[in-house]
Amino acid sequence: MYFLEYVFHFAAYAAEGLSPFMRKFNWSNNSLSTANIINACIKYKVKRLVYTSSMSVYGPGNGADRFTEDLQPNPKDPYAISKYACELDIQSAGNTHGLDWCIIRPHNVYGIKQNIWDKYRNVLGIWMYQHLNNKPLTIYGDGEQTRAFSYIDDCLEPMWKAAVLPEASKEIVNLGGIHGCSINEAMSVLQEVIGGAPIVRCEERYEIKHAVPSYQKSIDLLGYKETTTLKEGLEEMWKWAQSQPKRRQYAWEKFEIEDKIYTYWKN
What are the two backbone dihedrals, phi and then psi, of residue 223, each rounded to the nearest 5 degrees? Predict the structure, then answer.
C-alpha cells in the first residue's frame, strides 16, 4: 500500500478580473475543490499540505509599499476572497485535526508550460499568444499597475522545502517577487524579446493598482534565489511558446453575470 506524505495543492482557476462575473464557478472550482483536498489530507494523514494561495489576498495592502506576511489580508475580488477563505479553512483543519500546512503566496509566476491560451489570466502569456496570432498586444488602463514577476525554475526548490523543512510548518510565505515593475515596463522587456509589436490600450478594469510583495522570508526560510531576470525568463518562455502547436484561445461562451462586463471580453 502506498501512502502520500506531502500534498502540493497548486490547482486553481486564477482569473481575478473574471471572478466578479463567474462567482459560482470561482467558488466551486477553487474553494469547494480545496475542501475536498483538505478532507483527503486529514483522512490519509499526510505529513504536510502545501497550499499555493495568492498575493491577491492582500488587496490594496493598506497602502504598504511591499506586502508583508503580517499584513491583515483585505481581498477585494471573489477570486482573492475565495483564496483567503481556503487559507483559513486549512488553518482551521490544523487546529481541529492536527493537519500540518505551509501556505505559499506566490506572485506572478511565469515560464515555459504556462497556459498561454486563456484570454483572462497570465498577462505575459496573453501577450505571447496575441503576438503569435498577429494581434496587437493589449494593456488595460494606463499600464502603471505595478507587479513583481518570478520565473518558475527559481520557485521549484523553495516549494519542495515548504513541504519538508520543519521550520516551514504552519508558516505563510510570500514566494519570490524581488523586483517590482509596471506593466508598461514588462511590456517594454517583452518587446525587446519578440522584436516589437503594436500595442492597443483598453479600458481600465477593476484590479489592485500596486501589488508588490515582500520577499525576505522566502529567502530566509526557503532559500529562494532569483537567478533569472525578467528578460532571460521571457526569452526562454518565448522560445517555448513559438514551438507550440496552434491552439484556439479559450473564451467563455456565457458569463454568470454580464452587468458591467468589459467590452474586450464581450462575446
Answer: 70, 30
Residue 69 and residue 172 in contact, taking contact as beta carbons nearer than 8 Å:
yes
pLDDT, residue 3, reads 73
Helix or strand run (H / E) with residue 39: helix 33-43
DSSP state letters, 80-144: HHHHHHHHHHHHHHHHHH---EEEEEE-SEE-TT---SBTTS-HHHHHHHHHHTT-PEEEETTS-
Cα distances (Å, whole numbers) of residue 55 to 75, 80, 165: 9, 8, 22
Per-residue pLDDT tens for 95-154?
999 999 999 999 899 999 999 999 999 999 999 999 999 999 999 999 999 999 999 999
pLDDT per residue as tens digits for the range 152-173: 999 999 999 999 999 999 999 9
pLDDT in tens, 9-50: 999 998 899 999 999 999 999 999 999 999 999 999 999 999
pTM for the full model?
0.95
Per residue in 133-143, pLDDT (tens digit) is: 999 999 999 99
**Which H/E stretch holds residue 186?**
helix 183-194
**Phi, psi angles (nearest 5°) of residue 43:** -60, -40
CB 183 within 8 A of CB 139: yes
